[in-house]
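Q: I'm writing up a methods section and want to include an example of the input and output format. Could you take the sequence below and give the corresponding predicted structure tokens, formatted cleanly so I can copy it straight into the document?
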Amino acid sequence: MFQNKLLLKFAKVSGFFDILEDILEHIFVNIHSIQKNLQFWQSKAEGSRGQKLYFMIFERGPRAFVDGIVQLIRNCISEGSGIQNLYCSATSHIYDRIKILISLRFALATFLAQV
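A: Here is the clean output for your methods example:
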């Protein structure tokens, strides 16, 4: 009887540690993924103005390409500073991603430290 209770408690504790191990593994995978994405966006942030404009127009997919061209034309017609506005938009886009990723990384690291 005592041995059965002890085995049952051990099974419960063992199951708990298995679940905890899975959670920690997912957290480490997510932190690694966030770090890789953060490195990508930081490399974009360190790029030249031309590289940022190229990214905004050509590297974000067909819909972003069309939207970027339309925005560029509208800004050129209305304000005459389409390139400057597109550059500001690119910089904002890049730094927004960096801020979000840093925040996520901090939250996961904080959670990990509490476990």
